[in-house]
Design brief:
5 helices; 30% helix; alpha+beta; Aminopeptidase; globular; five-stranded mixed β-sheet; 5 strands
Length: 145
Amino acid sequence: MDEPIIRELEENDFKKGFLNVLDTLRETSNITEDKALEIFKNIKSNPKHIIVVAEINEKIVGSTTLLIEPKFIHQGGIVGHIEDVVVSKEFQGKKIGKKIIKYVLELAKNQGCYKTILDCSDDVKAFYEEIGFKYHSNELRFNHI
């Protein structure tokens, strides 16, 4: 297997299967091209919202999102939030997810984040602990829809 290229999402990645990769989390490939580009432009307009992809042989095989949050506490400290970590089923178990996470952790560090946090289910907790994440608290969720 070729080594994945880890980089920020580009408009051309929609033709390389980006939305299909997200289907592993929740059906997304049914979004129209126009709607996808509208969402992409909105996200790209915010430099604190970064989507990273893993590409192998012109195909997107993984992705995650890094959100940068400036805070009043910690003297205006900055927190990174990792969301929507995904690797296509056929590429899972090949350390692509680990490479994506390490890439966004470096981005967060370079942005000046004093911590980076994420929520995950118990079945993938060991994966994140292997990278260096520590269990800290519980997530609660309120659904608006």
